[in-house]
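G., the chain you wanted modeled:
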Amino acid sequence: MKPAPGMATPLAAAACLAAAGLLAGCGSGASARPTVTVTVTAPASSAPASSPATPAGGCTTAALQVSLGPGSVAAGSTYYPIEFTNTSRSACTLYGYPGVSFVTASGSQVGAPATEDPVFPRQLITLAPGGTAHADLQIASALNYSSAACSPVAVQTLKIYPPGQTSALLTSVAATACANSSVQLLAVQTVQSGSGP
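Predicted structure as tokens:
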């Protein structure tokens, strides 16, 4: 006769009783429960797809040349495309935001570094040899702030870290920075394909 759904067969019931006897600790009267430890190992690349770590084949600082495209003025700010050109013989990739700050002639940082302006989503940009990508930079006018709040300093140089890199490139710019780092003059967008507008 076939057991009703949900009922154990005689063999399964006997196996369960035997296992219960073993777990009971040979008549100790206390029902012991086994401890189970589960270890979950994350996959090798656990970074979310929307913000991966520096991709393999990322453009190194040594493989790039940086320059500023023509500036345009609007609403108390000047906007420049920071242009990255692949000077190597191999294709490489850029992903995310460059690091940007004003520096003195001796290389000392002046004021706060650029904040990230999330106008566009990050995307992986592949640069063929000789190819160019850009990230738009906003430089707010120091004249938007009082001299006491800004502590204005004339600067001639931008220090630019390509995305994912720890060594920088320098490019010329004529601007007035604020030595007071609580005043935010710089904002940069993520790298986009092609040269700037």
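The mean pLDDT is 80.

Shout if anything looks off.
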